[in-house]
């Protein structure tokens, strides 16, 4: 397969940057219609050949490698008057030259090949590095996104240098190549600039969520796009923090990676999904689809040593791949196509390789076979391999990107290769984001002490923040069936096989209706399963329903499932239209006196506080059991009070009935999802339990964890805490307070004086 792709490039495209496999010719920038930003990777420097150099060595094509190096040295120019992407040129061309140099040195030291080599590729790499350096001439240290290879970024002849924004990955995916260039040449300037850019991104992270946005202003450091994920625009920033630690041995990179990683797992990872969030409101999803570039993340999790979520996300991606033959450029959370293109991206193959290395599970060899078969069945054309224009129709696009040769065949070859098939030990190298090979020996290479450590006084290394080693997967998964147990539930959610149109005997019961559904009813959950409907629990407490007719036990059950989903969407839409505004819980007792107001969510049942002019006032007490899911055991304390309950274990209406039976005058349910807050998560109405809730005659409100903690801490400190439940906060001045203070006052004038001083904050 590699020979077919590489030889067609050399026969029909070289010295052009890329092969156009449908028309059997080279893509030369300026001669073909512009494709916009995609063309910024093309610099008239024989991109595909440079990007493929170290692949040739890995695949035991030493003779071809030697010929390719000679061609690069004789034919390639790096001083063209052309504007290129700093990011793409760094990872593909600079990385390709450095990977080629690493292989040439390794072969020369072996004594049989490349004996004539005198670091010529390294000299070209340094020349290119110097041509990229003008892009870093900004006050922040973040590079301009584009640079003119001949003229830099300043002056009208450059035709660039006016941009203000760059993506986080574009600025944060420099350190491996620039540090390697510094270590190989002894010139610290490249590593220093890459470190400065990383330092600036770290300083600009959102300090509460510890996440970074997707696009940043290179001059001011303001986030332009504040959505955060692990896919396009950010992906390789995280990858390079961890790999910079592996290559360079600087603990600072590992510490920063682990802080980011903890936030990714807290906010973005919702296994098996990886969903973008807002950096300032990380519990709020930023979109309902995922892009294919995040497929690298399970491989990064393997390097981190976090195998379980890697297995889960990879399985989701594998099932989407089997459903559509390739990963669409973007797909929705219910696994439908969002963007239908597929430019033969290698990230899924990369993660498949890493997971096989981590687990030894032959399942990942089968996943690799699926990738191979689909490439040969659907992408292979007489002149190479063509990108998919639409995975749904199988139509092609006239492009074969250089990364296909640089990455895809490396990872697939390594997946299936035995140790004796490899010409060298890949464990001695780190893969860049373009799969170029940099030797780990660079960590001990002499480098200038003038490169600052960039550690601020507040950044002392905290050993408790990360593990120093990856876990042994044989100890982690002593049961060989364990990975399969993780995959099975995910496989049932995504499937590509045809529906089985058979009628199952005994399916005579009436179908489940959306308005009757209860998420805690085992019988209802079993009915959902039979209809091909699965549940995904999101971290904000919501449940996502996904229906795949092919998973239903029969065609009739599948039809029932479709009807159920339609009813559920209509019901959800109706409830959103009827959604009530948020309610207020105001702490009115000493020493708060109404100044603390907590935002609360309403219930779809019980007293409607918007129809009450006075609201409900009362002292709070914690119900026992705290879940409120059984008969209240401290009814003597709950009676006449507003009961505090914890979310979970049963329906909201069930909690309300238990505390009402115990004599409570109202209830407040506190979220059990630690860290949740109305600042970062959308409020919702507490739903009923599918049957009449007319028997619930008191108000029930919902507080997120952060706001609930404020109330619980007040109760712990002051013992008697009185609150007002209402549709909106009442006046926080004297009108609220006489009721609170009268027991302490013996005449009205004294009480009034006390109150006015207190509300003034004295």
From TrEMBL:
Biological process according to GO: carbohydrate metabolic process; endoplasmic reticulum mannose trimming; response to unfolded protein
Q: Which reaction does it catalyse?
A: N(4)-(alpha-D-Man-(1->2)-alpha-D-Man-(1->2)-alpha-D-Man-(1->3)-[alpha-D-Man-(1->3)-[alpha-D-Man-(1->2)-alpha-D-Man-(1->6)]-alpha-D-Man-(1->6)]-beta-D-Man-(1->4)-beta-D-GlcNAc-(1->4)-beta-D-GlcNAc)-L-asparaginyl-[protein] (N-glucan mannose isomer 8A1,2,3B1,3) + 3 H2O = N(4)-(alpha-D-Man-(1->3)-[alpha-D-Man-(1->3)-[alpha-D-Man-(1->6)]-alpha-D-Man-(1->6)]-beta-D-Man-(1->4)-beta-D-GlcNAc-(1->4)-beta-D-GlcNAc)-L-asparaginyl-[protein] (N-glucan mannose isomer 5A1,2) + 3 beta-D-mannose; N(4)-(alpha-D-Man-(1->2)-alpha-D-Man-(1->2)-alpha-D-Man-(1->3)-[alpha-D-Man-(1->2)-alpha-D-Man-(1->3)-[alpha-D-Man-(1->2)-alpha-D-Man-(1->6)]-alpha-D-Man-(1->6)]-beta-D-Man-(1->4)-beta-D-GlcNAc-(1->4)-beta-D-GlcNAc)-L-asparaginyl-[protein] (N-glucan mannose isomer 9A1,2,3B1,2,3) + 4 H2O = N(4)-(alpha-D-Man-(1->3)-[alpha-D-Man-(1->3)-[alpha-D-Man-(1->6)]-alpha-D-Man-(1->6)]-beta-D-Man-(1->4)-beta-D-GlcNAc-(1->4)-beta-D-GlcNAc)-L-asparaginyl-[protein] (N-glucan mannose isomer 5A1,2) + 4 beta-D-mannose
A GO CC term attached to the entry? membrane
Broad class of the protein's primary localization: endoplasmic reticulum
Q: Which amino acids does the record list as binding Ca(2+)?
A: 433
Cofactor(s) in the UniProt record: Ca(2+)
* Active site location: 88 (proton donor), 235, 329 (proton donor), 347
**Family (UniProt):** Belongs to the glycosyl hydrolase 47 family.
Q: What is this protein called?
A: alpha-1,2-Mannosidase
Origin organism of this chain? Sander lucioperca
The gene for this chain is edem3
């Amino acid at each position: 397969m590699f020979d077919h792709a590489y030889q067609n490039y050399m026969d029909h495209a070289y010295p052009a940057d890329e092969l156009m496999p449908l028309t059997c010719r080279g893509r030369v920038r300026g001669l073909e219609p512009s494709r916009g930003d995609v063309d910024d990777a093309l610099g008239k420097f024989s991109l595909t050949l440079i990007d493929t150099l170290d692949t040739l060595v890995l695949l035991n094509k030493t003779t071809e490698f030697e010929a390719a190096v000679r061609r690069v040295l004789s034919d390639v120019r790096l001083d063209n008057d052309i504007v290129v992407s700093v990011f793409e040129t760094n990872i593909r061309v600079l990385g390709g030259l450095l990977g080629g140099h690493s292989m040439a040195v390794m072969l020369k030291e072996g004594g049989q090949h490349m004996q004539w080599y005198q670091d010529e590729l390294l000299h070209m790499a340094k020349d290119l590095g110097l041509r990229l350096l003008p892009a870093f001439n900004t006050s922040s240290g973040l590079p301009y996104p584009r640079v003119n290879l001949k003229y830099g970024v300043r002056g009208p002849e450059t035709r660039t240098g006016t941009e203000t924004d760059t993506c986080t990955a574009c600025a944060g995916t420099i350190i491996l190549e620039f540090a390697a260039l510094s270590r190989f040449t002894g010139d610290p300037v490249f590593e220093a600039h890459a470190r400065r850019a990383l330092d600036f991104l770290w300083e600009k992270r959102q300090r509460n969520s510890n996440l970074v946005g997707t696009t940043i202003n290179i001059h001011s450091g303001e986030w332009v796009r504040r959505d955060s994920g692990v896919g396009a625009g950010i992906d390789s920033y995280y990858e390079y923090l961890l790999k910079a630690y592996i290559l360079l041995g600087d603990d600072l990179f590992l510490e920063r990676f682990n802080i980011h990683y903890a936030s990714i797992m807290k906010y973005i990872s919702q296994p098996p999904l990886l969903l973008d969030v807002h950096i300032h409101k990380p519990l709020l999803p930023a979109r309902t689809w995922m892009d294919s570039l995040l497929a690298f993340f399970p491989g990064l999790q393997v390097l981190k040593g976090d195998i379980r979520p890697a297995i889960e996300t990879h399985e989701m991606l594998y099932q989407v791949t089997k459903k559509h033959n390739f990963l669409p450029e973007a797909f929705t959370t219910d696994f439908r196509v969002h963007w239908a293109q597929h430019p033969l991206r290698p990230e899924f193959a990369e993660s498949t390789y890493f997971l096989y290395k981590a687990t030894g599970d032959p399942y990942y060899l089968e996943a690799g076979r699926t990738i191979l078969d689909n490439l040969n069945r659907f992408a292979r054309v007489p002149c190479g391999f063509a990108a998919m224009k639409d995975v749904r129709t199988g139509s092609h696009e006239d492009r074969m990107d250089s990364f296909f040769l640089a990455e895809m065949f490396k990872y697939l070859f390594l997946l299936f290769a035995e140790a004796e098939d490899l010409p060298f030990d890949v464990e001695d190298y780190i893969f860049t984001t373009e799969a170029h090979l940099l030797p780990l020996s660079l960590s001990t290479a002499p480098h200038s002490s003038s490169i600052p450590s960039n550690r601020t006084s507040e950044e002392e290394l905290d050993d408790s923040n990360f593990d120093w080693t990856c876990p042994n997967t044989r100890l982690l998964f002593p049961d060989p069936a364990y990975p399969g147990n993780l995959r099975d539930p995910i496989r049932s959610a995504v499937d590509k096989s045809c529906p089985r149109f058979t009628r199952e005997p005994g399916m005579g019961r009436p179908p489940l209706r959306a308005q009757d559904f209860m998420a805690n009813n085992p019988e209802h959950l079993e009915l959902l399963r039979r209809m091909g409907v699965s549940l995904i629990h999101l971290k904000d407490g919501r449940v996502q329903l996904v229906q795949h007719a092919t998973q239903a036990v029969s065609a009739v059950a599948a039809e029932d499932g479709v009807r159920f989903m339609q009813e559920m969407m209509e019901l959800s839409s109706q409830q959103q239209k009827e959604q009530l505004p948020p309610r207020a819980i105001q702490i009115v007792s000493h020493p708060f006196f109404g100044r603390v107001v907590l935002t609360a969510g309403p219930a779809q049942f019980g007293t409607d506080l918007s129809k009450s002019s006075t609201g409900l006032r009362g002292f709070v007490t914690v119900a026992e059991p705290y879940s409120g899911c059984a008969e209240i055991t401290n009814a003597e304390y709950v009676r006449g009070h507003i009961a505090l309950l914890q979310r979970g274990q049963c329906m909201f209406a069930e909690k309300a009935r238990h505390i009402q039976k115990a004599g409570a005058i109202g209830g407040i349910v506190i979220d059990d999802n630690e860290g949740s807050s109305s600042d970062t998560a959308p409020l919702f109405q507490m739903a009923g339990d599918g049957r009449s809730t007319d028997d619930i005659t008191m108000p029930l409100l919902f507080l997120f964890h952060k706001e609930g903690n404020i109330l619980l801490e007040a109760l712990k400190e002051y013992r008697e805490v009185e609150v007002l439940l209402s549709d909106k906060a009442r006046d926080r001045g004297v009108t609220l307070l006489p009721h609170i203070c009268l027991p302490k006052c013996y005449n009205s004038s004294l009480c009034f004086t006390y109150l006015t001083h207190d509300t003034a904050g004295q």
